[in-house]
UniProtKB/TrEMBL annotation:
Main localization category: membrane
Subcellular location: Cell membrane
NCBIfam families: NAAT family transporter
Topology of the protein relative to the lipid bilayer: Multi-pass membrane protein
Similarity comment: Belongs to the UPF0056 (MarC) family.
One Pfam family this sequence matches: MarC
Entry annotated with the keyword Transport: no
Protein name as it appears in the record: UPF0056 membrane protein
Keyword Transmembrane helix: yes
Originating organism: Psychromonas arctica
């Protein structure tokens, strides 16, 4: 396994998925539900997101190639999309309404758009396209996705306690800080795309 790529993927995914922020949104969506239902929704959300990210990350580039889209064009457009996501993280507040007791929130909004939204899917394709060690890169990025989603699962299961500890102000500060890091990552993707497309 390529440790450098694993850590790089972990950093990017942690920033864009934001396990703590996602857990706090999860808590607000399941405030009226019992703990068994909350746990079920957390597990389903993570499994759906993991399958989506790994499959789309692995086969998304091939799909774009079939459509005649160069991977460097994807890096540039993906970087712009990630930068837009970062801009929203820094300047706006994410809100989702509670849909009622024991409703299924695993697909929407937890998996899409929160855990496996457009920004995360784009990042997954860009990470899987870095074929530094062939199949080793697939293992590294897949391991990073699973690691981040396990952290997110733990945060969601413990979201009631997390809400008490961090509070709204702490979440606001963390989300904006992560937004700045994501913006830097987005610029890096744009830079690499422009550099490689002009070679």
């Amino acid at each position: 396994m390529d440790i450098a790529l694993y850590l790089h993927a972990m950093t990017g995914l942690l920033v864009i998925i934001d396990p703590i922020g996602s857990a706090l949104i999860f808590n607000s969506l399941t405030a009226n539900s019992d703990q068994k239902h909350r746990n079920l929704m957390a597990v389903k959300s993570v499994i759906i997101s993991g399958i989506t990210l790994i499959l789309f990350g692995n086969y998304g580039e091939a799909l774009f190639l079939q459509l005649g889209i160069n991977i460097n064009s994807l890096r540039i457009s993906g970087g712009l999309l990630l930068f837009y996501t970062a801009f929203i993280m820094i300047t706006q507040e994410l809100k989702f309404a509670n849909t009622g007791k024991n409703s299924d929130i695993s697909v929407f909004p937890m998996s899409i758009p929160l855990l496996a939204g457009p920004g995360t899917l784009t990042l997954a394709i860009l990470l899987f396209s870095q074929n530094t060690e062939g199949h080793d890169s697939i293992l590294s990025v897949s391991a990073a996705i699973v690691s981040v989603l396990i952290i997110t699962l733990v945060a969601m299961v413990a979201s009631k306690y997390l809400k008490k500890m961090i509070g709204k102000t702490g979440d606001e500060i963390l989300r904006r800080f992560l937004g700045v890091i994501l913006a830097a990552l987005a610029i890096q993707f744009i830079y690499e795309g422009i550099r490689n497309i002009s070679m």
